[in-house]
Amino acid sequence: xxxxxxxxxxxxxxxxxxxxxxxxxxxxxxxxxxxxxxxxxxxxxxxxxxxxxxxxxxxxxxxxxxxxxxxxxxxxxxxxxxxxxxxxxxxxxxxxxxxxxxxxxxxxxxxxxxxxxxxxxxxxxxxxxxxxxxxxxxxx
Amino acid sequence: xxxxxxxxxxxxxxxxxxxxxxxxxxxxxxxxxxxxxxxxxxxxxxxxxxxxxxxxxxxxxxxxxxxxxxxxxxxxxxxxxxxxxxxxxxxxxxxxxxxxxxxxxxxxxxxxxxxxxxxxxxxxxxxx
Lengths: 140, 128
Known about the structure:
heterodimer; A: 3 helical TM bundles of succinate and fumarate reductases; B: 128 residues; mainly alpha; 3 helical TM bundles of succinate and fumarate reductases
């Protein structure tokens, strides 16, 4: 970048701005960063579902059956599958952040390696959880 | 913000510290995250294992001291972590007056949901 030209025209010409989210090409690092937040917000809804589920069990067999019926329906199973992926994604991403908190793994190579590990692990763990769940013959 | 023409922006920024009470929230988010890693994995494994269970056997499982104890720990850590996480999201993206409404709603909602979840677990644990 021609710094002298930039400084010389500081007046009328608009200064270059920092990368804007709308025009910035998505990268693994940025997608995982916002992904960790999005899955975190999604898991808040899963936490609400957990309380509803526990409350239904405390309320009695009828309420519990209704709750299980909703979770066992096709939309319920799709939501549970999405929650499962969000959980593993947030867990793996969270472990990555905890490692960063110890000031390790900041080299570009390590960042991409751990990033792809988060993607692969959350996919594999989600699939494994549902395969085992179906093998045990249950729904959800 | 400005304390006078003689103070440079650097002078105004220095000595303020980084985040004041934010440090405790940052730390709590990590501590709850470390607690949640084993607790949530236990929860998912238990759900998968008991996915075929009917009401009676599910309640019998949750009524065991280990299951109800871990469930209560899970609920406390989960909603503590949720409250802190959602707070950061709101602080970063909501800049209108709605921000304070949202912050209060999240805090109170997480307290209430944690309380309801713990009460439901205790009710099952000590028999209905």
